[in-house]
Inverse folding.
């Protein structure tokens, strides 16, 4: 099982980024997936989750209305669209396949002027 995140970077407050998580080594469409983040000095936070077919999503209160999780089961890729970014969104973002307890290496998101 392999998960590879991409799309992070430096963005100004109020800006947007789209993260991707490309998976391999398992039947992608069969499993729930999640996005977490780890900010300096803070515990890991569950940001969003998405069901197998994408019909059910859940979000942390801190990102509701700003972030959208989605998936493309043909391309074996999960996305996190992040809008109206705030400095407190600065973190390493990781994708997670809970069924396998498998993690990606993470992608850094920095929100700063």
């Amino acid at each position: 099982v392999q998960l590879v995140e991409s799309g992070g970077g430096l963005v100004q407050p109020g800006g947007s980024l789209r993260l991707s998580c490309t998976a391999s080594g398992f039947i992608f469409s069969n499993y729930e997936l999640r996005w977490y983040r780890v900010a300096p000095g803070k515990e890991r936070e569950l940001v969003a989750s998405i069901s197998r077919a994408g019909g059910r999503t859940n979000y942390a209160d801190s990102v509701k209305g700003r972030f959208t999780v989605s998936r493309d089961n043909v391309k074996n890729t999960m996305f996190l669209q992040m809008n109206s970014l705030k400095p407190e969104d600065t973190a390493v973002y990781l994708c997670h396949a809970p069924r396998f307890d498998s993690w990606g290496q993470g992608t850094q998101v920095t929100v700063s002027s």
About this structure: The chain has a mean pLDDT of 97. The longest strand covers residues 17-24. The chain has no helices and eleven strands.
